[in-house]
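Hypothesis: this fold can be encoded by more than one sequence.
Test: take the structure tokens below, design a sequence, compare later.
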């Protein structure tokens, strides 16, 4: 808890340094073509870009969120550099219901720093993302019914979400226009996200008020922290084509380290941005030996649609995601479906929901048959900003989760488990939403 308070103090100190030139509420500085959106005065390094172009500062990896997404960040010009910072801290009490549930105080948190500069006719963006969850998540991680993935003390994690690594991203992102409507991009680093899946859940505007990871995380966007990744691609008008080589092995239990391995996995992604309110993507990848305790490789497919609609004194963000994991060892397919939405209304108020269906085959790791179960998670909640200004926002919120499951799981989980969270959320301010 002391570390979280220290992290909050550091964030506020950084915000004080950046606030003089901060542009809250506008679209983040430059887009993939190396140009600045026309609604960011004071940050333009080139001619104005089309307003549908998604920003790399409001997303993860090279993923696209709609250009209309408000950016909660601090920014400052330092000579010819543009420096930005954003993140979020959730302090919450998490009570998971049923026979396998537990309650704990915890903190979900992350901080991203970005530095941007013109280079060789294009734009280079450095990203560093950090998380203190290895200190603020009670062992063996955040309690979460039906969640699986990664390990603790050499055993599979079940009914817990693992904390994120201290170094969640250490990467650079370079874009250079080739012609009026075509740009080239390169992305890579010691820790980064390949071109596989939707924008990671902690960066999605549709999940901004949800501290808990989706149950479908490990079938959709679990590669958002890969220790070694290289991506190249082309942006042609409203379409982006990209491919990655990366290390797909899941991080080990030492959350403060970087575990390099061969870049022997690959992925490809097609993304479109038909307007400033919509984005969509389809991606496919082969992951070599992703699981620490399971032999074999897997193939993954994902498809997603993102929507952002600003309106007077608010906005509505929605994501729909499908993810499939094909295990080559036994030929098994696991599917997941997610619909999540956050509505910001009357500026200070938020209503949120997340609906999921996901196949889980790791709930009973000691069972040699390893049956698969279709689990449903249905989360509803709300939050209200008690503090909201151009510098920062602090909200009090809560959410409630119901589940559907096969009757065979009633003995282990109870008939109708219900989980809830009460949280305090702190992040940079946005000012007024852009229209």
């Amino acid at each position: 808890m002391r570390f979280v308070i220290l992290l909050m103090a550091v964030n506020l100190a950084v915000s004080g340094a950046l606030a003089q030139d901060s542009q809250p509420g506008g679209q983040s500085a430059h887009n993939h073509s190396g140009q600045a959106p026309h609604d960011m005065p004071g940050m333009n390094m080139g001619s104005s870009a089309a307003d549908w172009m998604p920003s790399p500062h409001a997303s993860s990896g090279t993923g696209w969120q709609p250009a209309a997404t408000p950016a909660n960040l601090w920014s400052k010009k330092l000579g010819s550099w543009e420096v930005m910072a954003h993140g979020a801290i959730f302090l919450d009490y998490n009570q998971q219901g049923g026979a396998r549930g537990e309650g704990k105080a915890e903190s979900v948190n992350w901080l991203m720093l970005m530095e941007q500069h013109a280079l060789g006719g294009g734009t280079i963006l450095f990203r560093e993302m950090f998380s203190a969850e290895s200190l603020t998540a009670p062992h063996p991680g955040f309690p979460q019914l039906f969640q699986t993935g990664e390990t603790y003390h050499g055993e599979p994690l079940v009914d817990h979400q693992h904390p994120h690594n201290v170094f969640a991203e250490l990467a650079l992102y370079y874009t250079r226009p080739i012609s009026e409507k075509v740009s080239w991009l390169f992305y890579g680093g010691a820790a980064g996200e390949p071109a596989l899946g939707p924008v990671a859940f902690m960066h999605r505007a549709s999940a901004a008020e949800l501290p808990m990871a989706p149950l479908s995380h490990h079938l959709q966007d679990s590669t958002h922290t890969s220790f070694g990744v290289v991506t190249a691609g082309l942006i042609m008008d409203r379409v982006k084509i990209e491919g990655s080589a990366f290390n797909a092995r899941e991080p080990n239990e030492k959350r403060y380290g970087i575990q390099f391995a061969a870049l022997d996995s690959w992925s490809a992604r097609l993304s479109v941005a038909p307007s400033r309110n919509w984005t969509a993507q389809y991606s496919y990848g082969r992951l070599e030996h992703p699981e620490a305790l399971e032999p074999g490789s897997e193939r993954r497919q994902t498809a997603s649609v993102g929507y952002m609609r600003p309106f007077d004194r608010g906005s509505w963000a929605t994501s729909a995601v499908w993810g499939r994991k094909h295990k080559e060892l036994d030929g098994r397919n696991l599917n997941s479906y997610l619909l999540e939405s956050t509505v910001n209304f009357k500026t200070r108020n938020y209503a949120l929901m997340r609906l999921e269906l996901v196949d889980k085959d790791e709930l009973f790791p000691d069972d040699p048959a390893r049956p698969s179960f279709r689990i449903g998670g249905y989360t509803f909640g709300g939050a209200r900003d008690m503090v909201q200004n151009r510098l920062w926002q602090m909200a009090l919120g809560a959410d409630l989760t119901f589940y559907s499951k096969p009757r065979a799981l009633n003995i282990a989980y109870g008939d109708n488990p219900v989980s809830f969270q009460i949280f305090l959320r702190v992040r940079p301010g946005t000012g007024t939403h852009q229209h």
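The longest strand covers residues 103-119. The chain has one domain: 2-428.
Hypothesis status: open.
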